[in-house]
Specification:
By secondary structure, this protein is of the alpha/beta class. It is built from 14 helices and twelve strands.
């Protein structure tokens, strides 16, 4: 009897390379990753305890149980960049270590341990995690070979979501599955990427091929209107042991915070929603307020000095106010230090270009160093903006690009940010072509799909690094 599973949309797969977890051999690597963090943390603690005290006493055993409960299963990091992997480890370690120290100090249990052991463990443990993850990356190719040949899969339907799934399978080096090809009844001209992938036959040939070649995974990438056809395929496959996955075309649109929910007892599926509902919204707003207050207190003298310099070097106000679109597409006023000799806020605004004559000498420095953005922390306190989010565009630019780029206004499901995911990925400054603006919007939507407090902090650190070496802003 064929085993039938649900599957997330092709669009969601395209934006989350870890969606293959649980399929093929990626489950093996997920098991290793799940055990890696607690193993390294506990092993480093025991090693230090034994080296210092000659034994691993009861306090360390109890602490090990607490560590295991907090860290198992460990996070999956194989598909993250090394930079993101290290940041992910350090981010989680700060929370875990802080929690352990707070509880230990409150209960006075912390004083049962030698201070030298705990102090050494606080920095050796995360370094051990980073080293363990790097070793796992280096060993993956060998581990994949040791597990034998990859499991073969077929896709029924050479359409958009089917091809997207095929691309993700090809890019997932640790999945342990291999695409044999497609089954499709349509003519060659109607099939997507017909020259790129192997066509194994018509859909009627599927069951016979699966039995003959002992295919273990089948993905049905057919439109939902083809329900009778799908039922017939399932009936034909009852005499196989293949696992069957359905890739519904209703989700071929790019999901933003897609999840299931219930409204008055009726199950619904979110296609486009904000990530900042409930606890996430409280966490996001609280972090904005706290960080903005701290930053404004620290930079107050710098802001006063910049304001004086702006007023004394060119005529006009020190603070430039411009209308932008904010949360839910409502207009807001954004504050910046004036960096140009003109104050533009009309229906037609020209983006600043390299060697733009409108930019003052001081303004060029302010824009290059992003110091002109500092007054926007007041916008954050007012609730108009967030520290991290899609960068707000002038109203005139919004009205132009919303008609040219599909999904442009979705970025306004959240408050605009002082810095954003697009800016730290190279799309800072002028967007002189439609392709550049499209890329910026793609990153904004990716931020909405994958938001987390960890991602916000990562973007903040990348922004600080970018300010000192980026040449895109002028």
């Amino acid at each position: 009897m064929a085993e039938i599973h649900g599957i997330r949309s092709a669009a969601a797969w395209k934006n989350n390379r870890e969606s293959l977890s649980g399929l093929g051999r990626s489950h093996f690597f997920r098991m290793i990753e799940g055990a890696l963090d607690p193993f390294v943390l506990i092993a480093s603690l025991w090693t230090l305890a034994y080296y210092s005290e000659g034994t691993v006493g009861p306090p360390y055993l109890i602490l090990s149980l607490v560590i295991f409960s907090l860290t198992f299963p460990g996070a999956s990091r194989l598909r993250l960049s090394i930079e993101r992997m290290a940041f992910n480890i350090l981010f989680h370690w700060v929370w875990i270590a802080g929690l352990l120290i707070l509880i230990g100090f409150t209960t006075e249990y912390l004083f049962r341990f030698q201070s030298a052991v705990i102090t050494s463990w606080l920095w050796i443990a995360p370094l051990g995690q980073i080293g363990g993850n790097l070793l796992l990356r280096a060993a993956t190719s060998r581990l994949v070979k040791l597990q034998g040949p990859a499991r073969e899969v077929v896709i029924v339907g050479m359409n958009n979501q089917g091809v997207s799934l095929a691309e993700n399978i090809a890019e997932s080096a640790y999945s342990g599955i291999k695409l044999s090809g497609f089954f499709d009844d349509r003519s060659e001209g109607r099939r997507n990427e017909q020259g790129k992938y192997r066509l194994l036959g018509k859909i009627d040939d599927l069951a016979k091929y699966v039995k003959k070649h002992r295919i273990q995974f089948i993905y049905l990438s057919l439109p939902m209107i083809a329900r009778p056809r799908v039922l017939q395929i399932l009936d034909d496959l009852k005499d196989t042991t293949a696992s069957i996955y359905f890739v519904p075309d209703m989700f071929i649109t790019d999901l933003i915070q897609g999840r299931s929910d219930s409204v008055c007892g009726v199950n619904v599926i979110s296609v486009c929603d904000t990530p900042f509902r409930g606890l996430n919204g409280l966490l996001k707003r609280s972090s904005d307020v706290v960080l903005s207050l701290i930053i404004l207190i620290l930079i107050a003298p710098v802001m006063v000095l910049i304001a004086i310099m702006v007023k004394s070097t060119s005529s006009g106000p020190a603070i430039f106010k411009q209308r932008r679109y904010g949360l839910d597409g409502e207009q807001i006023l954004v504050y910046k230090f004036r960096s140009m000799a003109v104050v533009e806020d009309g229906s037609s605004i020209e983006q600043v270009r390299r060697n733009d004559m409108r930019v003052t000498r001081l303004g060029a420095f302010l824009r290059k160093s992003s110091l002109d953005e500092l007054p926007q922390f007041f916008n954050v306190l007012q609730g108009r903006m967030s520290i991290v989010g899609p960068r707000p565009h002038a109203v005139a630019h919004n009205e132009m690009y919303r008609t040219l780029i599909k999904g442009y206004m979705v970025r306004h499901k959240v408050r605009p940010g002082i810095t954003g995911w697009a800016q730290v990925n190279g799309y800072r400054g002028e967007t002189d072509t439609l392709n550049k603006m499209q890329a910026r919007i793609d990153y904004d939507l990716d931020y909405l799909r994958n938001w987390s407090l960890q991602l916000d902090l990562f973007i903040l650190l990348k922004t600080i690094k970018l300010v000192f070496k980026d040449s895109a802003a002028y």
